[in-house]
Amino acid sequence: MLTKRIIPCLDIKDGRTVKGINFVNIRDAGDPVELGATYAQQGADELVFLDITATTDNRKTFVSLVKEIARHVNIPFTVGGGISSVADVEPLLEAGADKVSINSAAVRNPQLIDELARAFGSQFVVLAIDARKIFNQWTVHTHGGSRPTDKKLFTWAREGQQRGAGEILFTSMDHDGTKQGFAIDPLAKLHELLSIPVIASGGAGYREHFTQAFTLGKADAALAASLFHFGELSIPDLKSYLKNNGIPIRI
User: Fold this and answer.
1) Within a 10 A sphere around the Cβ of 82, how many other Cβ atoms?
2) Is the pTM of this model over 0.85?
3) Which active-site residues does the annotation give?
4) What is the CATH number of domain 5-244?
5) Which of 140, 142, 157, 212 has a CA-to-CA distance to 128 between 20 and 30 Å?
């Protein structure tokens, strides 16, 4: 069985790491370079950097900050925010990104997934999907979760896979920052529908939530932010707990 991955996420706003609840009530969480270096040292399997206001500010990702973080980490590094073309990716690759995460631009122009997969390979393309339940349907949102769309989670995830995405990063907006646990049912359904890895995001509060994401939700990786940023749980302690509970994990 493939090992499960633990992925800290750096949500970046104005050059600082931030964290909110349900995508609002944003507060400062520290220096992204220091946090990235710490997580790499602690044994994180990957690191995700999301410039959460790049799309709403109509600008590109802060390449200089990506470069500085990359200098301090030795684990796979995914970068997202403001990516809308193949040309946007080249500077991020040069800065040290191993993968890119696309969200709003892919919804606006699904062909972007195909273009990136052709140019760099599917393993390089992470389709991030932010969704919340509206009238009993998981509805996809863009622009940092501020704009609902006509796309639904499961059909969009399946289309993303067909177009060449190598992973799906699913964030439940209803669970984000609540520390009440991941959205298990949609995770399990995504696992049934797809043949590519699914990353669970939104809702981690306790060690048990990760176990649930990996067993009940069948997630391939679990992403968390505030839990790590504010020292409520360390990556070594989490990994030790998971291993002791029969979850295949890299220590």
Assistant:
1) 22
2) yes
3) 11, 130
4) 3.20.20.70
5) 212
